[in-house]
Every structure is written in structure tokens, then in C-alpha cells.
Specification:
17 helices, about 375 residues, mainly alpha, about 70% helix, two-stranded parallel sheet
Length: about 375
């Protein structure tokens, strides 16, 4: 059975496989972004610049990943003269996005090493959160106190992004399903209480369960169907208590609509005319500026505001490009569903486009676009 080769040396340093090097960089990146401290966020950008300088000449041959990097870069440069005239600070975000694109190209040259690195990063972040919850307790939405001046929505959103990236790469490379880490992620989102993150975590588990049910080892087919029947029966029988639990212990008990986010969307859309549709609208005199300090609480508003329509369309087209590139329908479908989960979560949190966390979105996409996966017969459950 085909397995991805794991180089014995790092493509950047020549030393033994750079799994821990990449893992450390990923963890630094997540912590820097979560801190919301600008000088700390510059640190991983400096590290990225160093990696790119050391790894110059080691970028992969021209292929889908590199082509899409050029598409994204071109989409930003197209609107750059206008957006720079409006706000020169956007040069920082142009540099940030370029560094994330180049870093993603470099660290995904070795897909197996990336898979190990994203798993280590995910487990480490889960462990840090669980240790905090053990010390803090589970009452009164403790994740609101995890990061100073930040809500639990941010913490759980980052975790969803890491979990999706891990699931995508694990399934594409090894055809395995990550139930254990997905279960931990769901538990953490329930403690956090945020409706968006809980919905995303439940959808992630559901997609994994469906693919597990549809493609499992033949010799365990009977046990598979027993498990499917037991799980489905349990959900049906205990549906009311489950719904009561979510209503009483999370923010699902609140109204479904979010007047604050709706007001931000309405205000931003009111600023759009023919010119700003292409080049992005400003926040002037919107509630985004007056009430929320320029935070639109929406990755798509952020993307359009920063670099305009073509950039927004380019980043959203990546999941479609994965499906067109991959010759295996089940991998293309799995990738589409998983990406829809993270894009759903990004609708109410500015976690992407452009941010430091774009590295994970680009990296999993590039691996899925360039991986030459061979047919396999099985899906195995893994931790």
C-alpha cells in the first residue's frame, strides 16, 4: 500500500526532518495571533521571512499550489494602488499574506511532515486549553477568561481551524478519520458555549461519521453497521435531553439572530457602489468603526475591505479548485465539506483573509491540490 515518503532531512536546514521546527512555528503563530498584540504578531512574520530566505530556490516546481499563490498575489496587487491610497497600513497585510503564501508552499513540500506537525500543534493547543479548564473549572464560560480582552469565540474558532486542517490532510494522505481529536474539540466548544463553534464542531463530527460509515474495512463491515445503528438510535432516543442540555448550558438558548453582526453587515453593504464593489469599501461612519474598533467580526467583510472583490473570490475559490484538481471524488467531496465548515465559522469571526491563520487554510489546500494520492480500500480510525 502506498505511503507518503518522509524525507530524513529538512528541506530548509538539511537537518533531520523539520517536524518539530514546523510545529514550533505553527504554535508560535497561533499564540501570536490569539494574543492580539501587534509586536508579537510581527515575530512569526520575521521567522517566516527567515525560513523563506534560507529555503530560497527550494520552492516546489510550477503546479497548482504555486499557480494559485500567483492568482492570490495578483488579486491583491490589482487593488493595491487604490487600497494603499485609502490606507497605507494595508502594506503590512500585503506582506503578511505574501509571507503566509510562501511559508505554506515551503512547509507543504513534505506532506507527511506537515501532517505530523499539524497534529502536534493541534494536540498541544488542546492540551493547553484542557489544563486551563481543569484549573479554572467549567462554570460561567471559562474560555472568556482564557485570553485577556478576548472572547471564547476566538479560542474555539482557532481550534476549529486547526482541527479542520488536520482532518483534511489526514484523510487526503492516509484515508483516516480523526475521531479522537474531533471529539475533544467538540467538548471544548461546548464548554466555550459559542453557537458558531459548537455547530462547526458538530458538523465536523457528522462529516467524519458519514465518511466512516460509507468507507470502512470490509472485515469490520458488520461492526461498522452495528456502531452506526447504535449511534443513530442513541441520538434519536435522547434527542430531547440533548437539545435541553445545549439550550441550558450553552449560548444556543439565546435568540438565533445576532443583531450586532447583522448591523455590521448592513452598514458595510450600504457603503458599496460600483467602484467599491471591485476595490473594497471603507468602514467610515459604520458601526464597525464607531462601535467595534474596526473589527467587522466577519472574515469576508475583512477580505473585501482589505483587497477587494477579486481577492475575496480567489480565496473562496480554493475549495472548488481542490475538487477540480483531485481525481478522487470522495477526497474532493470530503475536502469541500470540511472547507465549508471552516468558511462557515469564518462568517462570524475574522480569523482569515488576511491573517496569520491563513497559513493553515493555504497549507491544507496546497497539499490537497498537489498530492498524488493512489487508490486505497480502507479508512482507519486514528487518534
Amino acid at each position: 500500500m502506498w505511503r507518503p515518503a518522509i524525507p530524513t532531512t529538512s528541506p530548509l536546514t538539511g537537518r533531520v526532518s523539520g517536524v518539530w521546527e514546523v510545529s514550533l512555528y505553527m504554535v508560535t503563530l497561533v499564540i501570536a495571533f490569539a494574543s492580539a498584540v501587534l509586536w508579537f504578531q510581527i515575530f512569526p512574520l520575521i521567522l517566516a521571512s527567515g525560513r523563506i530566505v534560507i529555503g530560497r530556490g527550494r520552492f516546489p516546481n510550477v503546479g497548482s499550489a504555486k499557480m494559485w499563490s500567483m492568482v492570490l498575489l495578483t488579486s491583491m496587487l490589482f487593488a493595491l494602488p487604490i487600497v494603499i491610497w485609502d490606507n497605507p497600513s494595508r502594506l503590512y497585510y500585503l506582506a503578511l499574506e505574501c509571507l503566509m503564501l510562501l511559508s505554506a508552499l515551503l512547509i507543504t513540500r513534505n506532506s507527511a511532515a506537515y501532517l505530523k506537525a499539524i497534529k502536534i500543534t493541534l494536540l498541544l493547543m488542546q492540551s493547553i486549553i484542557l489544563i486551563f479548564l481543569i484549573r479554572e473549572g467549567l462554570d460561567d464560560f471559562p474560555l472568556d477568561r482564557f485570553i485577556p480582552n478576548a472572547s471564547n469565540n476566538g479560542v474555539t474558532s482557532y481550534l476549529i481551524l486547526l482541527q479542520v486542517s488536520y482532518c483534511l490532510v489526514l484523510y487526503a494522505i492516509e484515508q483516516r478519520i480523526a475521531f479522537f481529536t474531533a471529539g475533544i474539540t467538540l467538548g471544548i466548544t461546548i464548554v466555550g458555549g459559542g453557537r458558531g463553534s459548537i455547530s462547526a464542531a458538530l458538523a465536523l463530527l457528522l462529516v467524519n461519521f458519514v465518511f466512516f460509515s460509507a468507507n470502512y474495512r470490509v472485515k469490520f463491515r458488520f461492526l461498522k453497521w452495528v456502531l452506526v445503528v447504535v449511534v443513530c438510535s442513541g441520538v434519536i432516543v435522547y434527542m430531547v435531553p440533548i437539545l435541553d442540555f445545549f439550550t441550558e448550558n450553552t449560548k444556543f438558548g439565546l435568540a438565533i439572530d445576532d443583531a450586532h453582526r447583522i448591523a455590521m453587515i448592513d452598514d458595510y453593504l450600504s457603503k458599496i457602489d460600483g467602484f467599491s464593489l471591485v476595490f473594497g469599501a471603507d468602514y467610515n461612519w459604520t458601526v464597525i468603526e464607531t462601535d467595534y474598533n474596526g473589527n467587522p467580526h466577519n472574515s469576508y467583510i475583512r477580505a473585501h475591505h482589505m483587497f477587494g472583490l477579486f481577492y475575496l473570490l480567489a480565496v473562496l475559490a480554493l475549495p472548488i479548485a481542490i475538487g477540480l484538481k483531485n481525481s478522487r471524488p470522495e477526497i474532493a467531496l470530503y475536502a469541500l465539506l470540511m472547507n465549508l465548515i471552516i468558511l462557515f465559522r469564518a462568517f462570524t469571526e475574522p480569523i482569515l483573509f488576511p491573517t496569520l491563520l491563513d497559513l493553515f487554510y493555504f497549507s491544507s489546500s496546497f497539499i490537497l491540490m498537489n498530492l498524488s494520492a493512489q487508490p486505497r480500500d480502507t479508512i482507519r480510525v486514528t487518534k
